[in-house]
Amino acid sequence: MHQSVSELLRNGGVIIYTAPSATVAEATKKMAFHNVSSILVLENNETLVGIFTERDLLRRVVVEGLDPNTTQITDVMTPNVMVVTRDTPLGQVHLLMKEKHIRHIPVADKDRLLGVISFRDLLRFENQEKDFEINQLKDYVLHKPYPVYPG
């Protein structure tokens, strides 16, 4: 994967976040509403202080028997979040996720958050690339002419 993170952020998107004072129940309701598996924790709606994922919910809340209605997100989030830029190569992000055993990485340029890349996003993009390449090879083998694009 020679493309950069910006390829996955082409469509933009909404950054789903919560305040450090939020409870686990509040954060997970927001995650469910937006159909996401992670939520950023932002101080004053701008400074990244952590990330909370479905895995954190399972391991740090459910397994520990904590009450999601009274447990603050800061007590169970992952602090010191690894962040990549939009120019980071996707291959590097993939390796980073595998080596660090993480599934979500926020993307930022300087102090501005741009989104979150998930391992699923990477796999989906990689599969699309492979499907395109397979179709190109099939067309070549079957001697189909390549489409000519007006330029």
Offer a few descriptive terms.
151 residues, alpha+beta, CBS-domain, three-stranded mixed β-sheet, 4 helices, elongated
Structure description:
- With 151 residues, the chain is α+β, with helices and mostly antiparallel strands.
- It has one domain (5-141): CBS-domain (Roll), CATH 3.10.580.10.
- It is 36% helix and 19% strand.
- The chain contains 4 helices and 5 strands, in the order E-H-E-E-H-H-E-E-H.
- A 3-stranded mixed beta sheet has the order 1-2-3. It has a two-stranded antiparallel ribbon with strand order 4-5.
- Strand 2 (38-43) and strand 3 (47-53) form a beta hairpin.
- The longest helix is centred in the last third of the chain and has 23 residues, at 119-141.
- The protein is elongated.
- The two termini are 26 Å apart.
- The model has no long low-confidence stretch (mean pLDDT 87).
- The number of helical runs is 4
Using the coordinates shown, work out and report the CATH topology.
Answer: CBS-domain
CATH architecture: Roll
What fraction, in percent, of the residue positions are helical? 25-40%
Classified in CATH, the superfamily is CBS-domain
The largest beta-sheet arranges its strands as 1-2-3
